[in-house]
Amino acid sequence: MKRWLLLGGAAAALFAGVSGCGGLGYYGQSIHGHFSLLNSARPVPDWLADPETPTPLRERLALTETVRDFAVQELKLPDNASYRRYADLKRPAAVWNVVAAPELDLTLKTWCFPIVGCVGYRGYFDRPTAEAEAASLRAEGFEAGVYPVPAYSTLGRIPGAYFSDPLLSTFIRYPEGDLARLIFHELAHQVAYAPGDTVFNESFATAVERIGVRRWLAAHASDQVRTEYERLEARREDFRALTLKTRRALEGIFRGPGSDADKRAAKAAAMDAMRAEYATLKAGPWDGFAGYDPWFERANNAALGVLGAYYEQVPQFEALFRAQGEDFHRFYAEVKRIAALPRAKRHATLAR
Hints:
- With 352 residues, the chain is mainly alpha-helical.
- The chain has one domain (2-351).
- It has 15 helices and 8 strands.
- The chain has a 3-stranded mixed beta sheet. A 3-stranded antiparallel beta sheet has the order 6-3-7.
- Helix 9 (223-255) packs across helix 12 (301-311).
- The longest helix has 33 residues, at 223-255.
- The protein starts with a helix and ends with a helix.
């Protein structure tokens, strides 16, 4: 579950790497990691026809074919080779993202590259290297973190089935609703992308996934799957509400009067209050569910800043979808138009 909360965070990992702007070492690990992933992928029909494919995996892959067709037919998402192949990575994450923020600010540190612009994370295919980068950032005075990302999008910019984004072992066994969400989210990145605007890009993809999964569950899911999804989503909503409240409290502290020492004390109190409220949720309505424990144990400004990037503009995109008569073609056309505007005008237009 904690992976799902942050999925899509490596939406630009490939292009951030192949640009070479991060240095030769970063360039090399990005190229090697991505091509290793692509070389592991085989078309889903091949896996389905292979008698050695385990039955549970065969069933999940068959499900993805239906989800993928639904994405094209009902959500008008790209009809291409993305998520029509599958790769077993034999590791728990596709990439590990490094994020960082100042001690008294929720603004994420950014790394800038051609094509994708500036993004608030840096993806590594090797966890120890990511941890070393995070340690270096902490030595500079940042609050940093490393989190696993189950999937990333190459934005559909490279033609050919071989270069298409594959299904991965890192998420193939997700609950049905979450599996569908992930596929919808990553495909949405291929529809519209504003270079250097993580909040816009991730909020748009999150809005598409939320709209899409509601329709998928209504049209295709069993009662059991819908009940499971509702339980998971209720916890996610509680998590979002709690972390949003904490982000707003911290923003008020950081922007308000007082010395740095005063702000540090107020920040510590806000973080303690957040963890106490989480403990109440876990002991009460969550019936002891502890899946968010690792996040709260490591929570800092960087972790809270990332969450803001994924959800900040989701309500505006959902309102825009309704304003376009819930017509996906019109919705995507309007999102593309807004994405092409200068950043300040883009955000102002979306807010209206």
